[in-house]
Amino acid sequence: MAYEVVLKPSAARELRKLAKPIQKRIGKKIDELADNPRPPDAKALAGGEGFLRVRAGDYRIVYKVKDQVLIVLVIRIGHRRDIYRGITSRTRKKG
Q: How many separate domains does the chain show?
């Protein structure tokens, strides 16, 4: 059963700021999450918040799977060097 992928407004803004080829690569990876929200390359983030991340080249997609409503909520999109800064404080503000 396919999940619906929802991008937080902040994640959508982060995606729009990237170059078109990178947007395409990340978009393809996000589309794949609809069919398989827990692919073999997904890693759980430390902290027990239930966040997962997948790689798209040098970029990371941080997301949370809501199985009860079949939604993949994309929390952040960004370069690997700064994607994890403030991840828990940013996500708690708007849930």
A: 1
